[in-house]
Design brief:
Elements: H1 6-11, H2 24-28, E1 38-39, H3 63-72, H4 74-93, H5 100-137, H6 143-171, E2 181-191, H7 196-214, E3 218-226, E4 232-240, H8 244-248, E5 253-259, H9 265-268, E6 273-284, E7 297-302, E8 318-323, E9 328-332, H10 338-363, H11 370-373, E10 381-386, E11 391-394, E12 399-401, H12 404-407, H13 412-443
Parallel strand pairs: 1-12, 5-10
Antiparallel strand pairs: 2-4, 2-6, 3-4, 5-6, 7-8, 8-9, 10-11, 11-12
Family: Belongs to the prokaryotic/mitochondrial release factor family.
GO molecular function, one term: translation release factor activity
GO biological process, one term: mitochondrial translational termination
């Protein structure tokens, strides 16, 4: 990396690096044990929702202190040193005569570690430049000159923070299907009375539809089963866009609603009812991921139900497909054509079969992430929407806001919460990775 003269650095302006706001992942890596729900309206406890420690890797309350102490922590630095050592050893190994398959695998690993090595080298260069800049302070007499240097120093420190964040993100393991499209299902649950579950299910489905539009993703409805009062029993949609599944994968689970029904005795008595609905988020598999043998399928046709004119209840356009080995079943009656419904049902079935594969793979991994996010199984209650208090709470990270109806618009507030969830998951995954690395070294 070519180093710029210190005078050029002094006179330059580094755009986008003057904010003092900590980056998301490092917010999570510099926290103390959480003592109460975090509200986005309160900045004093903004970074206190996750407590993480690992064999002496204790993370502090102050983000500025936690940032510095984490980077200087011996375990993290030792882990990075081991990766650089591996990079150097691979360089020597690749100079030897190797079999093609072995060389290909080692080259892929070497290329990945080369990116890490470049980032670490850039950090060392930037830290050296900050040291040179600090040495210039003693030679300056003008207040204006000192202010310019202070501003430049702040920019350089922010740049170092950005590079360190890139290193941490580099270390976080990526999941296999993160870049796939997503299949979203919403299913109405049970309630203590009234039809608030169906109404709430429709609102949540609309929230994700709006979020897809907010992210410029496509939103293709695969199945839609409304009730007579405008609520929703069940619906499914395919969401296509860059990283759609990665972005939405932590939305799966039980969503609880607390509200006063709009009609009936409970409405007149202002009695709060509690209900639930389930969100299911699955990666939409590519054709190359796996194939389903047609001999393993049982396909039934039946007459469509619900609104739709003369075509409904007169032709067998609706399709139900059963995957015999797993017993999984899907049905679609969204289109007027049986052929189109069959094609849509097959997309849904492929996603459900892939879910079984993903669960099997996940069960073979370490279960530490379950402490924070559960199993991502649909039986986990993840969020409560309290309409009477205009409050939303995500129970996994003690996240709380007091603008529930704005949240249901499915735009910036939902996007912010998803950022929080991913930051917490990344922090936990990184610490678990370091823990696993040193436990394997101990075993050896």
């Amino acid at each position: 990396m070519k180093r710029l003269p210190i005078v050029a650095l002094w006179q330059s302006r580094v755009s986008g690096l003057h904010t003092c706001a900590p980056t998301y992942i490092l917010q999570r890596l510099c926290t103390t044990p959480f003592t109460g729900p975090r509200s986005v309206a309160s900045h004093s406890n903004r970074n206190t929702f996750l407590s993480l420690s690992l064999s002496g890797l204790h993370l502090r309350r102050s983000c500025s202190q936690g940032f510095s102490s984490l980077w200087q922590n011996k375990m993290l630095q030792k882990y990075l040193e081991s990766l650089i050592t591996e990079h150097q050893e691979l360089r020597q190994t690749l100079s030897l005569n190797l079999k093609d398959e072995e060389r290909k695998a080692l080259t892929q690993r070497y290329t990945k570690l080369s990116s890490l090595s470049a980032l670490l080298h850039a950090i060392q260069e930037a830290e050296s430049e900050v040291g040179e800049l600090e040495a210039m302070f003693s030679d300056l007499k003008s207040r204006e000159e000192n202010e310019i240097l202070e501003e430049e120093k702040e920019s350089m420190i922010q740049n170092i923070s950005k590079l360190r964040e890139e290193v941490l993100r580099f270390l976080v393991p990526q999941e296999r299907y993160d870049m796939n499209d997503a299949m979203l299902e919403v299913v109405s649950g049970r309630t203590t009375g009234g039809d608030i579950c169906q109404q709430f299910t429709a609102e949540v489905f609309d929230m994700y539809r709006n979020y897809a539009q907010y992210k410029s993703w496509s939103f293709e409805i695969l199945n839609f089963s409304p009730n007579d009062s405008g609520g929703l029993h069940h619906a499914a949609a395919r969401i296509a866009g860059k990283g759609a599944y990665k972005r939405l994968k932590y939305e799966g689970g039980i969503h609880r609603v607390q509200r006063i029904p709009q009609v009936g005795l409970s409405s007149r008595m202002q009695r709060i009812h509690t209900g639930t609905m389930t969100v299911i988020v699955l990666p939409q598999p590519d054709e190359v991921d796996f194939k389903i043998d047609s001999k393993e399928l049982r396909i039934d046709t039946f007459k469509s139900k619900g609104p739709g004119g003369q075509h409904v209840n007169t032709t067998d356009s609706a399709v139900r497909i059963v995957h015999i080995p797993t017993g999984l079943s899907v049905e679609c009656q969204q289109e007027r054509s049986q052929i189109q419904n069959k094609a849509t049902a097959m997309k849904m079935l492929r996603a459900k079969v892939l879910e079984q594969i993903v669960k099997k793979e996940s069960s073979q991994r370490d279960n530490a992430r379950k402490l924070q996010f559960g199993t991502r199984d649909q039986s986990d209650r993840i969020r409560t929407y309290n309409f009477t208090q205009d409050r939303l709470t995500d129970h996994r990270i003690s996240y709380e806001i007091r603008t529930l109806r704005d949240f249901l618009n499915g735009e910036e507030l939902l996007d912010d919460l998803i950022d929080e969830l991913h930051a917490a998951a990344d922090a936990e995954a990184l610490l678990q990775l370091i823990k696993l690395h040193f436990s394997e070294m101990t075993d050896v």
